[in-house]
Structures are given as C-alpha cells and as structure tokens.
Fold this protein.
Amino acid sequence: MRNITLKKYSQLGDTLLYDAVLEHLNPKNSFAKKQMSINSMPYANVKYAIRLLPKIKDWAGIYQLFNICYDVTEKEFWRASITEYFSARKFILKELERVVFTENKVMSSQSTDSHLWKLAGAEKLNTYNDTLPLVQLGKLLGQYPFDLGRKPYGEIFSLLAQTKLQNEVEADYRKLSVQ
C-alpha cells in the first residue's frame, strides 16, 4: 500500500484496504504543511464548519471543510497525502466535537425559569442559535453582530461565557434581594 495523493485516492474504485488501515491513524493537526487553531479561527467559520459536518456528501464538501479549517487551496488539498488527510480529518472531527461539548457544558443553564422560557416559544429561536449570541454581544459592546462573527472564536466564546455567568449572578442577586 502506497501513500498516494488525495486526488489518486478519490479516483480509486475500491478504497476499502486504504480505509481499513488509515482509519486507525492518530489525529494530527497538520495538513498540507498548515495547522488549524480553533481559537484563532473566526467565530463564524467555526460555527459554519460545525453546521457543515452533517451535510458533507462528497469531495467538494470535504474540501470546503478543509478549506475552512486549514485554509488550503484546492490544489494543496488534492496534492496532500492520504495519511495526512486521514490524520487531519480525525483531528478536525475531534476538535469540533470538543467545541460542541464545551459550548453545551458552559452555555447550558440550570435556570428554574427555563420552563417559562420554553412556554414563551424559545424553540422558535433555534434557527438563529449561531447569531443570537452575537446579537446580544453586539448590543452589550455597541458593535455590529456580524463584525463580531469575524473575530477569533476564542475571544467571542470567552466573552459569551463571561456574559452568561454575569447574567446568572445578576438574576440570582435580584431573586435574593426581593426575598
């Protein structure tokens, strides 16, 4: 088995042997001599990559994901080796899974008023899950929300976590002061 380019791999009729072996490679943050950093990627790109994952059906979708994450050209993508591809793909999946897990953990709320929030129709807002936090930050900071989407993911996530925690503390304080 040779370490062929991604272009040659995509043209193979039967990739079963390659898939069986290469699936066991360890994740590695390297593809076409580039590295990916979730925290320095634009917030909007990280969110787009997460939404793109379940929709990938072909090589064009895979290239789009690698372009977002590793900022590679199509030429660089197809010239990369398959060992690089399998290791980098595993790394991307692991990183995006970590992001989703961390966001769910940090941004989840144990509010006793959550049932009222649901009754008020909170599920209608699900379509805007990626932009609503930016709208809230934009109001707070006096900035256009989509400009914030171009800021590094790490900075925006940190601000969102801080804002959420501050809002929870203020809500708890209001409840205590009423009693």
